[in-house]
Amino acid sequence: MDPQAKKTALRGITYGLYLIGTKDASTVNAFAGNWLTQTSFDPPLVALAVKAGTRSQEQIKASGVFSVNILASGQKEMATAFFKHVEPEGNRLAGYEFYTTEITGCPIFKDALSYFECKVVEAVERGDHYIYVGEVIGAGVHREGEPLTLRETGFYYGG
Ligand SMILES: Cc1cc2nc3c(=O)[nH]c(=O)nc-3n(C[C@H](O)[C@H](O)[C@H](O)COP(=O)(O)O)c2cc1C
């Protein structure tokens, strides 16, 4: 295989950029990720790829839940704050206010357009990122707006 062609072709996949909320028994966490897609209407399923060995991956595996926050166009700065390890301070992560519901307990950001909460129903732990298939068991809308796309940010993750 031509490695440059592989990279160019894979970078042709278009993405959003989301804040994925996770938790364990003692704390909550969130990271910015783009490897997310819906895979079923009924039941509503999504597939999320999470870097193996990260705190987020370990928390999703252990807790069996995660949240997905849909950011708005223009929230590149907010997304960028979650490419690195963050620690909660009260009800804030990287300075951004979150809350939790009784559905999963994973962080939901007030500044996000909307969110959904998932319980893991399947895992594919292969490669350098592991796939978690989540059934959507809760959702909410904070406001209307255009979602942030990876293209808008100028970042790449894939190739
Ligand atoms: C543009 C971009 C997209 C990313 N997408 C993903 C992704 O889809 N899945 C993932 O596991 N990490 C992704 N990352 C990396 C995570 O944001 C990063 O590893 C984060 O620090 C993980 O948090 P943690 O160490 O607290 O678990 C992406 C990074 C960038 C710069």
Please explain how this structure is put together:
This protein has 159 residues and is an alpha+beta fold. The protein is 16% helix and 40% strand. It has helices at 3-10, 55-63, 76-80, 150-153; strands spanning 18-23, 28-33, 36-40, 45-51, 65-70, 88-89, 92-93, 96-99, 108-109, 114-124, 129-141. The strands form 2 sheets. It has a 7-stranded antiparallel β-sheet with strand order 2-1-5-10-11-4-3, with helices on one face. A 4-stranded antiparallel β-sheet has the order 6-7-8-9, with no helix packed on it. The longest helix is centred in the middle third of the chain and has 9 residues, at 55-63. The two termini are 13 Å apart. Flavin mononucleotide is lined by residues 29, 31-35, 49-51, 54-56, 83-85, 129, 155, 157.
Question: Which key phrases capture this entry?
Answer:
globular; four-stranded antiparallel β-sheet; binds flavin mononucleotide; alpha+beta; 4 helices; 159 residues; Pnp Oxidase, Chain A; seven-stranded antiparallel β-sheet
Short recap of the structure:
The protein is an alpha+beta fold and 159 residues long. The chain is built from four helices and eleven strands, in the order H-E-E-E-E-H-E-H-E-E-E-E-E-E-H. The chain has a single domain, classed as Pnp Oxidase, Chain A (Roll), CATH 2.30.110.
CATH architecture: Roll
Indicate the structural class: alpha+beta
Give me the number of helical elements. Answer: 4
Bound molecule types: flavin mononucleotide
Number of domains: 1
CATH topology: Pnp Oxidase, Chain A
- What multimeric state do the chains show? single chain
Point out poorly predicted stretches: none
